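User: Could you check the structure of this?
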Amino acid sequence: MTIAEKLQILTDAAKYDVACTSSGGDRRGGNLGKTIAGGCCHSFSADGRCITLLKVLLTNVCCYDCRYCVNRTSNDLPRAMFTPRELADLTIDFYRRNYIEGLFLSSAVVRSPDYTTELMIKALTILREEYGFSGYIHAKAIPGADPLLTHRLGLLADRLSVNIELPSSQSLALLAPDKKKENIFQPMAQIREEILQSKADKRKFRHTPDFAPAGQSTQMIVGASDETDYHILKLSEGMYQKYALKRVFFSAYIPVADSPLLPSPVDFQPPLLREHRLYQSDWLLRFYHFKADEILSPDQPTLNPLLDPKCNWAMNHLDQFPVEVNTADYRTLLRVPGIGVIGARKILSARRWRSLDEDSLKKLGIVMKRAQYFLTCSGHMTPALRARPENVLRALTALEAPAIQPQYEQLSLFT
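Assistant: Sure, the predicted structure tokens are below.
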């Protein structure tokens, strides 16, 4: 099989892995691929995805039989495998042609987690030490691999990720019997501790090698099992707190197998809107000081498809509004729909010099078509505040509909 044929198979197989951010890389030394601390530059593929990396599997030959995975051992599909040398040469060739800025390397589990990790380490060692490549590398840590191998992988990569795949032990036992929750969380804990240790050692000894300096992330499949949005958000919140993750990625389930344990592929539409709402909720957890229990609850475990989570929260807590824009603190401003992190900081800065009115807020970039229902300016009500709650809800829903309809035409709500 030629390199081009392998590349076609293994890049296509990698498209189901969405956990590939490229921010935070600042590896020093080397001769090729140096990037600034802000991360790799970006380009866009024909289907609109933002890409900067060569996103590829080392191999799609797998010894596991996960029901939801296209690369499962029982699936009849073309198989391919790069040698470490082939993968390293291909990456450098693409970099020299200015196709890419770095590498996103994942793999199916061939033979065993240890053997697969050893092959990945060999490929990255050739890149880093032989070619002097200092570009961004995101590598997948294989659950179940020896901790010493995970340590070596983290010294070569800028970011590591361990995919949790499914949101509960019950779903893993049902759909991925070869994977255990303990084997997934153990390397997450190891990576967190080694990152902290590396930072502590670097304060004492400046030549201490970096261990995964861009942190770690994970990915969950949404829609393959019956966990609720509340369950998924609580799990995400717990992982952020316990393992200091940089990001939790959500991947809408795409039918690649016909199994009685999975949603029927007949007339099944990937839950793209649900994925979108989960990302919005995740943003609230990470940057807006929300808790999962504020966004959802056991009694209301599903995100509202008609409203973004922040607007939905505000409509359920009208007793906390309106907010006086000239006196409210930072956290309170962040709770107002239409005010983001940057907008809240601009408000705090601008009101040191003058009182803010509605026109001032528009000049600061505040999205007044949302915020107008929840703000007062120096005690003066915006005209929209006189609307009844049901009319506010109708207006906010109308703002969402045009953006959602073209992207999620499968929703009967908008068709």
